[in-house]
Amino acid sequence: MIFSLKECLRSIYLKPPIGCKMKSKFSIFFDIFYIVLFFLQFFGETNQRFFRNDAIGIGCFFVVVYAIWSRRKREFSFYSLSHLFLIILLSNFVFFKIAEYDPIQLFPEKLVIKLTMIIWNFIILFQHYRSNETEFNMFGPLLAILPCFASINFMLYPVVPIGFAIGLMIRNSDIKEVQFSKSFILFFLIVLLWIFRDWSDDFALVRILLFSEVVIILSLVNSLGREFRQKLIDHILIIFLINSVILVSKMYLDSEFKINSYREDLFLIPVSLLGSNSFLILGLLALSFYKSNWRIRVFYLMVLLVSCFFLLLSLSRISIISTGLLFLYIVWEQQKEKINLKFVAFAFVSLLLAFVFLLLSEKSLLNVETIGVRFSIWKLHMLSTIYNKPIFGFGFNSEKLIPFVENLKISTLDFALVEDYMSHFKTFPLAHNLYFQIFSSTGIFGFSVFLIWIFSFLKYSNKSIAAINLRKNLPKAILLIWLIHEILDFSSLEIANILILGLLALDVKNSEKSNVKDKESLQVSKTIMVFLGFYFFLFLFFSYRFSKIEQQIFKNHKNIHLSTFLEFTPTGIIPKGYNLDSNSSGLSKFEILMYGERYFFLQLALAHSTANEPIILQQCFDFISRKEICYAKLMNYIVNEEPLVHYSDPIKILLSISDPFGIYLRNFL
Question: What residue intervals traverse the membrane (predicted)?
């Protein structure tokens, strides 16, 4: 029976579908606003216009064919199919954003990413056909953004598609059934504090927003049960395996690649991220192997082999040690009463082969010099925070600010080691330690909150610990080993790891979950709705801000270069539409405050060799807190202006005062 569109819309919004408890007027407003904003993101400036057209066309084609095919097999509501259409488009939007950067570049015309996108579309369609409408309303948005949470998929602003997925999840969830507490409100008050404190720094905002988005996702799926979370874990393993095949193929086709060579990154993927992510994938496998289906176990075995390969390939010592600790824990728990000699023999041979592989590699097992550099960086983070920003720290991009503080209280040897590190790796001194990084980012206040959360989590998990059940104890063991892992690394906020860590924490939390609903959560549900609504509209603003910057980068890619230290540097080619001689008032104060420092430095780079450049340079000293970059930009301007060359020496003195490590000064010596 064919219904008119008017009847379909009436059936959707006057009688909301299962799981959708929003009022009809708000639902209509939300859907229209969501769709308009989403397509504005999709049709912005890009370097992959043909891929974007293919992504939209393939998505529309698949949904239409699926809708026609499914009428003979199973009847779906109009709302269910329209929701599926948005999910497919969101998934293709993710792959479109991945294609804009694509560090692997296996085949021309982004063919591999297109094939992966098509495979993922089929997986989404299969899950829609297999699942009931209520389950897919929550699982579909997560499935669309899972490719974001993969180690080889680089995106400049992954929080944008993740935020759109959260919007769809909230749109289709019954918030009253979601178990929140007053601590959730406290958490978001702290998040808002960090957001407004780091308002001008895009990189810090991405870290904060990513962390808060994962917390919201976990809160929404908390009440959906263990089977739902296991399905999510299985699809994380699927995208990991697909990307691993792509990466292995790239290594095989690269004639210059040597498997035992020492490297800092693998096709622009940091090896520390590769190692830490492989360890967490092995942890998920250890949790999942309890399934009895032999086909699924074969799939798990394939993921196991690939993750072990990348773990050894990364040569990440702390990740390999962490995997060894996890393996020993599993053996100990399973063989407390009777040791299985075959199992132990297999373990011994595996460890021996891994040890031989490490010995044959170019990276030494124990490098005293590397450890010494890390100690020096830890001292820099700790002492700089204590003497300069003790209460609230430097923000979630602290490594970018610490080298330029006024009170550097480190020894001459530590100073030299840190300076050599930054000069050699061309990067800012990341702490490579979760605890020192948190301390320098959030100060005494934030670090105290972090410690309270850790101890509360450990105390809670000890109450629900199972004496014999390894399956229930394993998530806690993985997280405890991870806390050890993070002593020599800082990978907790990496997008490839943060969702996995959250799922493990949720597993511990629900290991002995009571069926009694928390009265406290019911009393504050309306307040939480206000917080979620406010956060969602804050996300909409940031998605607009991030997309505005990203689209200008693509639009002017011939005129600028991305730079680690200077944000953007001009290529010398004047952008079209710029008048070299016309004067203007530069950027408005509102523009600078709303769009942040990254946007400001982008406009400064685009104004190169125009009458606007000195005006924006003056604004740099008026509105931007990072004076060392302002002095470096001013020096670049003076060098290119012959009548001003005699001012270079005084500016060098000022630059040396604000740049003790000589990050910018060495370019003018």
Answer: 26-44, 50-69, 76-99, 111-129, 141-166, 178-196, 203-221, 233-253, 265-287, 299-332, 339-360, 434-458, 479-506, 526-546
